[in-house]
Amino acid sequence: MHIKLSLHSLYAYTGGKEFNPAQPTAVFIHGVLNDHSVWILQTRYMAHHGWNVLAIDLPGHCKSEGIPPQSVEEAADTVIALLNVLMIEKAALIGHSFGSLIALEATARDAAAHPGRINHLVMVGTAYPMRVSPALLEQSVSAPFKAIDMVNSFSHSTLAPPPSALGPGTWLYGGSKALMRRVLASNTQVNVFHTGFKACDDYRGAEAAMPKVPCPVLFVLGSDDQMTPPKAAQSLIDLCAKPIVVKLSAGHSLMTEAPEGVLQALKDFLKP
Fold first, then answer.
1. Number of domains making up the chain
2. Is pLDDT of 240 > 90?
3. Cβ(31)–Cβ(96) under 8 Å?
4. CATH assignment at residue 175
């Protein structure tokens, strides 16, 4: 599904279902050098169980037009624009890593203009501050394939996923590296790898944003996550008025390493 925003078209995967204004909507936001496909199990389930699903490609990534967001705030404005264009009245925002910061910022910004519109916030594999090492920032420009290998080493705690994710025997490292290389190649004008990492590293708005979030917040964290260790999310949890914390046996790539666990956490949190 392509949604025409003011300046460009934004792609959103819908789980094979048409958008139904009568249903609640779940917006899924991916992390750096990923796209909508990282949510495949979770989005397919929800789309077939009473939800509108909008798993977006961020601007300038893969199927979405536009310029890649230079900051968390800029990306959050895109999410709000999406809700406005589709005239969505009730939405849950679900973000992973970089996407979790975008979801947080969007929820805080939207609360004043549209009270109650975003009624659930899910932050998967999150941290604050979400610092990126100078070496990795530099390599995302000078040696992106080497940086991709490094990120994947730190993002996975297992070699293969359970059958419910990508299929028995799938090599998580290889599949993730292939995805990241494809996303990097999807934009020949802007290095979306470096842009995304820099946006994470620069973001300083969470301490102001979290107290403005009026809805319940679910934190889904990987106990073996080396990119955003669970302890790195504690500052956000402490600032949250209504936190729910779920820890899963997984690394940073929770949606493929613990797909059923992530899905169950969403089902429990989003049930009527």
1. 1
2. yes
3. yes
4. 3.40.50.1820
